[in-house]
Amino acid sequence: MAKPLSFTCTECGAAHAKWSGRCEACGAWNSIIEEKPLSSGPGARGLGARRGHAVALEPLADETPPPPRTECGVAELDRVLGGGLVPASATLVGGDPGIGKSTILLQAAAAFARRGLSTVYVSGEEAAAQVRMRAQRLGLGQAQVALAAETNLRDILTTLDAERPDLVVVDSIQTMWLDNVESAPGSVAQVRAAAHELTNFAKRRGSAVILVGHVTKEGQIAGPRVVEHMVDTVLYFEGERGHPFRILRAVKNRFGPADEIGVFEMTGHGLSQVANPSALFLADRGEPAPGSAVFAGIEGTRPVLCEFQALVAPAPHGMPRRSVVGWDAGRLAMVLAVLESRCGIPFSGLDVYLNVAGGLRIGEPAADLAAAAALLSAREDAALPAETVVFGEVSLSGAVRPVSQTENRLKEALKLGFCKAIVPPGSNAPASGDMALMPTADLAGLAGGVFGAG
Ligand code: TYD
Ligand code: MG
Fold first, then answer.
1. 63-70: long-range contacts at Cβ-Cβ below 8 A with a sequence spacing of 24 or more?
2. pLDDT tens-digit profile of 245-274?
3. Whose CA is nearest to atom 22 of ligand 1?
4. Which pick of 42, 53, 96, 154 has the fewest CB atoms within 10 Å?
5. pLDDT higher than threshold 60 for residue 38
6. Rounded to 5 degrees, what are φ and ψ at 160?
């Protein structure tokens, strides 16, 4: 029999035969820890002589109604979930410590309870008094939420089996422990076993279960990624420190669209919903300035406008710096390389800083052209024309490619008072409204047409 693997990566959960400094599966450094192999459970002893029961097979072509949903009452959260919580489902809410996971889930639990649904909030991190204090700060002191400050999952499950609540929030999965798992709370084995038990509970009793998972920096505590595959829905709560804005992003959803975002603002009384994120992300923008370009993006089903800000400065010596916040560093390197080799506009010898304002993180390729416009504008020290939005994907040849949902992007831009758009060739202006399009076939055209460079 093969020797059991007993080293596990706390980032991705990959099993390794021996310890090493870097996980070969996900590339994370210093994330591999030794774990005791499970002494029981599937695969531990092989199937043996016992035969299983026959499983009833069903035709694929059967009709199944769409899952019933219960809106939890926080509209931005409901939208990210795809229209509300699904009974008998497990949802993971991940995010950095202190980002606001407990706050939003307490608000959601209270809103859920207000609809007359039974709600249990299990806190393994804070005492009941602390949760109560937070609730009072949020103006939810009278919410009909049942509290438990407990980390022993066996006791919690016994309680939940008796109560059968409609919603259970478990804050956080890393604090829960099972006495039949030998490793310490927070280890990959404990976190996985606890998530497994709670997901089973959700399916067995029809409750909607929400698990909180802290994104961890050091390797000893398992991160939320190790349970992503066990749950139905995975949401991440993001935001920059120092910014009040928080983005709740669906990265997996068995019952709805992934990629949807909800936008919140952290206030003194908890998280308030932001119905018009574009207005918020552009709020601090002054007069058109060199290095700034407004990107008309799509996040999930919603158009969102945001500002790309670039700064280039002579690099005194050695390797020039490339610093990027809110966008992909690889994508920045690609756009810089295309500008250099296809348009003859070098950035070598220059430090380059690129930020997406407001703490939003952009993943769409449609942002390439906006980033290029911001970079060119910074390098040429010339502002883009006023009231202009930009979008388009840039290929390695420097050509600007069309992107989806042109009309939605332009309509949102019109709504916010923009009247010009730098767009891929072949884009159509919306039928209503006054939007002047500047079709741009390639980056050389952008450099020459808008900045007279290249
Ligand atoms: P919290 O929900 O405890 O974060 P997490 O559960 O993700 O670790 O949020 C903690 C931060 O939020 C803390 O820095 C204080 C801030 N906060 C507010 O600004 N306003 C509020 O009303 C609350 C409850 C917290
Ligand atoms: Mg918390």
1. 67/255, 69/255, 70/112, 70/115, 70/117, 70/166, 70/208
2. 899 999 999 988 887 889 999 999 999 999
3. 270
4. 53
5. no
6. -65, -35
